[in-house]
Specification:
The complex is a heterodimer. By secondary structure, chain A is mainly alpha-helical. Helices cover about 70% and strands about 5% of the residues of chain A. Chain A has a single domain (about 5-130), classed as Four Helix Bundle (Hemerythrin (Met), subunit A) (Up-down Bundle), CATH 1.20.120. Chain A has a two-stranded antiparallel ribbon with strand order 1-2. By secondary structure, chain B is an alpha/beta fold. Chain B is built from 21 helices and 19 strands. Chain B is globular. Classes of the chains: A mainly alpha, B alpha/beta. The interface of A and B includes residues 22 and 30 of A.
């Protein structure tokens, strides 16, 4: 990877860290300690389906991730930490299946899975920075 | 009636923070600006600035996002050459810059962590910008704490328990830091030129807010002879040194459970600094000549009129002691010339105080009565015909400073800081009142209680101060004096820095002695801004080995 390519990738990863890593977990970080499961489900809805807002309205986490892959997969595909990020995002997005349910949700489990995305992005950034 | 909740404006392209404020922070009112109705926020800079232009006064705090993924025509320009990606990523900075142009004191919480931003290349120093806060944690408590700090700082009173904070952002930041440092036992370093109010803040704010049950004890290390500093600090038993005729308690023991204010801490001799370090570490003191150690629980406030880090660099202050005192707790009190926006406020309050002093009250009331006003009303200062903010009429006797007179004060460099300002106004009030009562006595009548101040009087009062060069007790933190004295110091091998400093100080005292013709009250006024501290000057004079009788004899 050349220096310009690497800079571009680091830019993309910075955006991903902000748009996906921060905002997929933020609704949970901002939940009060005693939130009930209705509030927890609402937070999950916001985290996964209204992750960011853009000119065209809400942007779900899945779409942010797809956009990143479209722009960067060729460059990150051979980095070791990419597999870990893919797995973390996959696990976080798998909570979508709970959105239509009406039973209690494990806040701790969701927080752990959503928080792992940020950590994995950071790891990939460090690896990309070293590959310059 | 219920107290009004502080009002928050959210500027964010996303909804998360607006939702959080609306739902989870009921102690605040989310301003209904923008969409959606249940979590309104303004989505871009131009809209937000237009809103603030119309309703800025109704906003108590702004929550401002950093990255704005909005259309290009809704972005404010960032820097020349910044591409779209960068402009979007740092759009919060562009918005903040515009807010600061129009609303300098509006609290803004940036919804990003400082560590997530590389601001150096933007030339920003937001960490030191007053009323600007970073959100360093992304949880609800961090958000709540930051908003609370911003609201508190903005609603801080200009005057509190006799402390004239004023309105300047720097002093607000000082107060914010001191209110945190007042808690607990950690030592505090206060740096600031003479007259900035270090000892006043230490007693009236740090000690008063510490909730410590013990006393506030102060020691001026500039006036204690070097060979007595250890005994003064730690105590001594009878016979521990020549002249120790009885056991004496040290200031650490006297300040137990309270606060110890070490003024001019940079003057502690190096050998005593080591002992002080151990006391701070172990919280035990051993009086000189004693084998017994005493536990002490003391909050230390160390004050210096010069940057302590500089004295460390010069080898005059131990690095380990400096680190123990903790540079992280260092607070710099700004000189008056760096907060001149506060000058009208300070001048008005100090005039009122001067007019309320025992010797001024009878004169003031006599003038009020002659002008047909009720006595007992406070004095006011009228600056360039502008009444004090918030008042519609002149309350009692008024000291009127026309524009040119005010400019003399506003353009003065105030080397003696607020203490000098207080002295000048005290003298101004006294002289003007005396002059007016003399006029009454000689049969003149007064049509109003508005006393015009003679610009010549102001000029002469200011000259009295500005003619005093910087010196050991009147040092500037940076820069030189306008009219420096030149000292000759002969260095010999084996002389300590303390010897050199004493030699220079001796020459300085001598020159002042000659200039004031041996008037110690005048010397105290010039050196310390307070003629009543004559005794401290005499003591230092003696410590430096200067003999008044010999000097007077030599001059005859």
């Amino acid at each position: 990877m050349g220096p310009a390519e690497r800079e571009h990738l680091l830019d993309l990863l910075s955006d991903l860290k902000h748009d996906l890593g921060k905002y997929i977990r933020l609704p949970f970080m901002m939940l009060p300690p005693g939130a009930d499961w209705h509030e927890t489900r609402t937070a999950l809805h916001h985290a996964l389906l209204q992750t960011r807002s853009g000119p065209a309205g809400h942007v779900p986490a899945r779409e942010i991730w797809a956009g990143f892959l479209r722009d960067a997969e060729a460059q990150v595909g051979n980095l070791a930490a990419f597999g870990e990020l893919e797995a973390a995002v996959g696990k976080a997005l798998s909570w979508e299946r709970e959105l239509d349910g009406d039973g209690p949700l494990s806040r701790d489990a969701i927080e752990k899975d959503l928080g792992a995305v940020q950590d994995a992005i950071q790891k990939l950034r460090l690896e990309a920075a070293r590959h310059g | 009636m219920a107290e009004r909740r502080p009002r928050i404006l959210v500027i964010d392209d996303g909804l998360t923070y607006a939702r959080v404020v609306a739902k989870n922070l009921p102690e605040y009112e989310l301003i209904a600006a923008g969409q959606p109705a249940e979590a309104p926020r303004l989505e871009d800079g131009p809209t937000a600035l237009a809103f603030l232009e119309r309703h800025g006064g109704g906003v108590d705090v702004v929550l401002l996002d950093m990255k704005f993924d909005v259309e290009q025509d809704r972005l404010l320009p960032l820097d020349e050459g910044a591409d779209l990606r960068r402009t979007r990523r740092f759009q919060g900075i562009a918005i903040l810059r515009e807010i600061r142009k129009r609303h300098a004191h509006l609290p803004v919480v940036l919804l990003t962590s400082q560590s997530d931003l590389s601001l150096a290349d933007l030339g920003e120093d937001l960490a030191n910008q007053s009323m600007t806060y970073f959100l360093d944690g992304d949880d609800l408590d961090s958000l709540r704490i930051r908003i609370n700090a911003a609201v508190q700082e903005a609603s801080q009173p200009a005057e509190e328990e006799g402390i004239l904070w004023g309105h300047s952002p720097t002093m607000r930041a000082v107060r914010r830091r001191l209110s945190v440092l007042a808690q607990g036992r950690m030592p505090v370093i206060l740096e600031g030129e003479t007259g900035t109010g270090k000892s006043y803040l230490a007693e009236r704010f740090l000690h008063a807010r510490s909730n410590r049950p013990g006393p506030f004890v102060t020691v001026d290390l500039g006036t204690v002879p070097p060979d007595l500093v250890a005994a003064h600090l730690f105590g001594a038993t009878r016979g521990a040194y020549t002249g120790a005729v009885a056991d004496r308690k040290g200031v650490f023991e006297l300040a137990d459970q309270g606060t110890l204010f070490l003024d001019e801490v940079q003057n502690i001799p190096l050998d005593v600094q080591k002992q002080l370090l151990l006391v701070l570490q172990d919280r035990r003191v051993r009086p000189l000549g004693s084998s017994r150690e005493i536990d002490v629980d003391v909050k230390v406030v160390a004050a210096s009129s010069m940057p302590l880090a500089r004295t460390v660099a010069e080898g005059r202050f131990r690095r380990d002691l400096y680190m123990r005192l903790s540079p992280a707790t260092r607070v710099v009190i700004p000189p008056l010339r760096e907060r001149l926006d506060d000058l009208p406020f300070l001048a008005r309050r100090l005039t009122e105080k001067a007019g309320a002093q025992d010797e001024a009250v009878p004169l003031r009331d006599r003038i009020a009565s002659a002008a047909g006003l009720q006595s007992g009303l406070p004095m006011a200062l009228l600056i360039d015909s502008e009444p004090p903010p918030g008042t519609s009429n002149e309350p009692g006797v008024v000291l009127a400073l026309p524009g040119p007179s005010w400019r003399l004060l506003a353009e003065h460099s105030w080397p003696g800081n607020v203490r000098e300002l207080a002295m000048v106004l005290h003298n101004l009030v006294t002289f003007t009142l005396i002059e007016a009562t003399e006029a009454l006595r000689s049969g003149l009548s007064l049509k109003s209680a508005r006393l015009q101040v003679d610009p010549g009087l102001i000029a002469s009062l200011l000259t009295g101060y500005s003619g005093v060069p910087d010196g050991p007790s009147d040092s500037r933190m940076e820069g030189g004096a306008d009219n420096p004295l030149r000292f000759e110091v002969t260095l010999e091998a084996g002389e300590t820095l303390n010897d050199v400093s004493n030699t220079a100080e001796r020459q300085y005292f001598l020159s002042l002695f000659r200039r004031t013709k041996g008037d110690f009250r005048r010397m105290a006024e010039l050196l310390l801004g307070d003629a009543d501290r004559e005794r401290a000057v005499r003591l230092r004079f003696n410590q430096l080995g200067l003999k008044v009788r010999e000097l007077r004899g030599a001059e005859r």
